[in-house]
Amino acid sequence: MENIPVIKTERLTKIFPMGKGEFSALKGIDLKLGTGEFAGLIGPSGSGKTTLLNILGSLDSPSDGKALVLGQSIGKLTAKEAAKLRKEKIGFIFQSYNLLQVHTVYENVEFPLLLLNYSANERKKLVMGALEWVGLTDKIKQKPPQLSGGECQRVAIARAMVKTPSIVLADEPTANLDAVNSHNILQTMARMNEELKTTFLFATHDDKVIGYLKRKIYLKDGMIDKDVTN
Question: Looking at domain 36-50+77-229, which of 3.40.50.300, 3.40.50.150, 3.30.505.50, 1.10.287.130 is its CATH number?
Answer without folding.
Answer: 3.40.50.300
